[in-house]
Amino acid sequence: MKYGVCFCFLLLTIAGFAQTGNYNEKEVSDYIQSLIGGEREVSVPSGRIDLLHDGTAYEIEWASKWKESIGQCLWYAQQKNCKAGIILINKKEGDYKYLIQLNSALAYAGLDGIITVYWFPEDFRQFIK
User: Fold this and answer.
1) 2-17 helix and 25-36 helix, angle to the nearest 10 degrees
2) CA-to-CA distance for 119 and 126, rounded, in angstroms?
């Protein structure tokens, strides 16, 4: 019974995060870490990795700021000698265009096979068990 309650709580929580405009980036980043683990705010020269998880340095960013996330994740990955990743936060309806722009820019630059991209919260539903 207690697992059913936990499962329902997680479903309601992620449903609430579907409207991420109500939260700040730190709250969303903390929530992502609670789902998948890893280490938050890892210091490197000239910055901090939002989430270091499973050998990947993730920059977690609002979708509209996707351009900034490319340079940051590459720098952080270089500093930790690991893979680069971006988690874009879907803040409001219409933000999906930014995911398309990010993916097309990465493909154009030949970085689509180098930088892992996730779309929050849609891509994180798989972590709820």
Assistant:
1) 140
2) 12
